[in-house]
UniProtKB/TrEMBL annotation:
<feature type="transmembrane region" description="Helical">
    <location>
        <begin position="86"/>
        <end position="106"/>
    </location>
</feature>
<dbReference type="Pfam" id="PF04479">
    <property type="entry name" value="RTA1"/>
</dbReference>
<keyword id="KW-0812">Transmembrane</keyword>
<dbReference type="InterPro" id="IPR007568">
    <property type="entry name" value="RTA1"/>
</dbReference>
<keyword id="KW-1133">Transmembrane helix</keyword>
<keyword id="KW-0472">Membrane</keyword>
<dbReference type="GO" id="GO:0000324">
    <property type="term" value="C:fungal-type vacuole"/>
</dbReference>
<feature type="transmembrane region" description="Helical">
    <location>
        <begin position="52"/>
        <end position="74"/>
    </location>
</feature>
<feature type="transmembrane region" description="Helical">
    <location>
        <begin position="164"/>
        <end position="186"/>
    </location>
</feature>
<feature type="transmembrane region" description="Helical">
    <location>
        <begin position="24"/>
        <end position="45"/>
    </location>
</feature>
<feature type="transmembrane region" description="Helical">
    <location>
        <begin position="127"/>
        <end position="152"/>
    </location>
</feature>
<dbReference type="GO" id="GO:0005886">
    <property type="term" value="C:plasma membrane"/>
</dbReference>
<protein>
    <recommendedName>
        <fullName>RTA1 domain-containing protein</fullName>
    </recommendedName>
</protein>
């Protein structure tokens, strides 16, 4: 009886992409609590700043997917052979950052609209955000299709390969975004240092010293 139970507990959820470890309950429960709190705070902020619905959609979607991903890891901590938990874990924790990244792309395009010096040559703020969101959509397709195929075809590694391709594409777009973000922040810093402009933060007007623009803008 014991040998049967042990062999059953080692069966991969989908035959190819199983976790090779049993997730710990306490850390994942902590992350579920953390993302639940962040999700609640984001709802309150969305009600307060309801006009930024595009940013709100990405943040809420990303936080919800992250929360579901860690809920799935809690399920896997009880039963590592839980196939549904495995699929929810993979899709939740890989798609969540995609939605969060989309909100960041919209945020930097807003900075470019407010600070003309931060705009890149021949690339409008709307086009800037659209290009990165398109890249996120490509990642979304890869990861979503890969997760579906991994759930349907247990012995075929194509699903896992597609998810890995989606993650690699996401890393590429994130690296490019970080580089451009550094350029935009430098241009904003330079503009504030030269013009000593007034910045508006949550409806209040105050002067921002040049070195503090990264934290305040």
């Amino acid at each position: 009886m014991n040998s049967t139970a042990n062999s059953t507990s080692q069966i991969p959820p989908n035959g190819i992409g199983a976790v090779s470890f049993t997730p710990l309950l306490a850390p994942n429960a902590l992350f579920v609590t953390l993302f639940t709190i962040l999700f609640t705070i984001q709802i309150i902020l969305n009600i307060r700043f309801w006009r930024f619905y595009g940013y709100a959609t990405g943040m809420l979607g990303g936080l919800l997917l992250e929360m579901l991903g860690y809920v799935a890891k809690i399920q896997l901590s009880h039963n590592r052979a839980n196939k549904n938990g495995y699929i929810m874990y993979i899709i939740g924790l890989t798609l969540g950052p995609t939605f969060l990244s989309s909100s960041l792309y919209l945020g930097i395009s807003t900075l470019q609209r407010h600070y003309k010096a931060a705009r890149l040559a021949r690339i409008s703020p709307r086009l800037f955000a659209s290009l990165f969101i398109l890249g996120d959509f490509i990642c979304l397709c890869f990861i979503g299709c890969g997760g579906s195929l991994a759930a349907i075809f247990d012995t075929n590694p194509i699903g896992v390969d597609l998810m890995i391709a989606g993650l690699a594409t996401q890393v590429l777009f994130t690296a490019i975004f970080c580089l451009l973000l550094a350029i935009v922040c430098f241009k904003i810093h330079k503009q504030l240092a030269e013009d000593k402009k007034l910045a508006y933060i949550v409806g209040r007007r105050r002067y921002i010293p040049p070195l503090a623009c990264y934290a305040e803008v």
